[in-house]
Specification:
The complex is a heterodimer of chains A (about 300) and B (about 300). Chain A has about 300 residues and is an all-alpha fold. Chain A is about 80% helix and about 0% strand. Chain B is mostly helical. Chain B is elongated and about 80 Å long. The relative contact order of chain B is 0.15. Classes of the chains: A mainly alpha (about 300), B mainly alpha (about 300). At the A-B interface, α1, α6, α7, α11 and α12 of A face α6, α7, α10 and α12 of B.
Chain lengths: ~300, ~300
Amino acid sequence: MSIHLLRRILESLLILLGISIVTFLLLYLLPADPARQIAGRSATVQTVENIREQLGLNLPLYQQYWHYLSNLLQGDLGRSYLQKTEVSELIAARLPATLLLMAGAIVCELVIGLALGVISALWRNSRTDRVLTVVSFTSVSAPQFVIGILLLYVFAVKLHWAPIGGYGTFAHLVLPALTLGILGAGWYARMMRSSMIDVLEKDYVRTARSKGLSRSRILFRHVIPNAILPIIAMIGIDIGMFMSGIVVVESVFSWPGIGQLAWQAIQRVDIPIIMGVTLVSACAIVIGNLLADLVAPLVDPRIRVR
Amino acid sequence: MSREALSVQEAASESRSPGVFRQLLERPGSAFGLVLIAAIVICALTASYITPYDPNDQPFDGLTIEGAPIAPNAEHWMGTDLLGRDLLSRLIVGAQTSLIIGVVANGLSAILGTLVGVTAGYFGGLSAVVLMRFTDLMMAFPALLLAIVLAAIFEPSLWIVAMVIAMVNWVQMARVVYTETRSLTERDFIQAQISMGSGPLRVLFRHVLPHLLSSIVVFSTLGISTTVLLEATLSYLGVGVQPPTPSWGNIIFENQTYFSSAPWLVFIPGVAILLMALAFNLVGDALRDILDPTLKGRHG
């Protein structure tokens, strides 16, 4: 176990190193000249040259990368071209809002997804099951920005049940969290359905039935806990899905997290911010996958590590 | 020679099991999906004949006196957009955009993914380590953000957007093809071919690829749905297909400020995107049930 743990951590570190190389190369490939962008439009050739020298842009590629990596390791993600602030500070200031949104989304997708999955499995092949299958198919096929705008239109504009966007109270959180969670809920519903069906056919469930236990006791003590185990480990993997979703959801609901930061940076082509958010998200995905791998055997002893 | 004939026959029977199309039509979900896909394809192919108005024309009477978009009526079945252009006409032309990107992006990513997966799976060794680690690396990038960065590097146009999506989406295919190629390569009939002295290209094209065909078809179909959603999202964020070329995503992007007073401008294209993604998801999922050898336990 500890060797496996060590290997997975080492692998993750290598992937992170690879990610830093790819991000660096992407930055390097960009047609926009950072020195010119920082200097502004009216700068003289000399000023641009000076800035280039300051940033080390005239050094050979591998030295520039080394410079970039050592800065990264110290938590320095570079400076925003337009806001003239450290990217790491901008991200750190907005990270709590994003984490809150993600936590809300996880709750939404688990509650909705697991509930629908259980209902589908218990009434397998009934009309309810078929309707729920259509619902979960639709939810994984719907573009998130359309769901977001639809929820805003119905619950904020028409019904006035929720604020039209922003941040602060619990009411602000509901719609964005729901939007971000619906996609995952569709996946969870389908996974929970097949996991439940698997468990329902197990011998220990038949034993429980033949012992004369009540239906609800079998369901809540034996079936659901066992069916949930393989699914809980998937939450780590969701982080990757959320990382793409937050850009859209936060811009629809003007939620002040790193997704909105990235979206504003897209509009102004502020590359260091986009890169910073990409790097932070990639790290989150790697860590999420690592957690999923490590947590799975803990919550579900049936998964034995080779 | 007879052995070779046998394995080719086996390959043919596995990848083209008879009546796949009929089986798709017999399932209500995939039949619905097929009908939708057919409708979208017909719209896209005949766009220049069936659009009631010029999709880029901004007629004098295209807006209300106050300058707001016109709600759906007998003349403009789906209303007009913020510039007074006919929404139905733009949607029909937008179907072309979505389909072109869906097919081109997905074709490219299928080719790229298959190439990487087969190379790593068949040759193994160092090439597998390098290629599959690179695939892991690409998987760790959030797809949307990577696509945004790539779209910022290249000026976004229809073809560039398709390429960007392909560069992000090949990873899944590479994974699937790699796993299948590896297990195929260990099977007797492939080993027999190799020991009989067949060159790698011959083994790959005559014996390995035919077995991979069904997985490639399944994941390409499901991939179109991912592609359609990603294109719509990129266009919605303003880094996808650029106006005036209509795409379902950029129609929403252009009109979203009107969403409370003219909701049809957002929801009609939104439903179009949903239906297209749903159609390919339904057909892909049914194809997986029908074709996927791992689900039917053919590999034992």
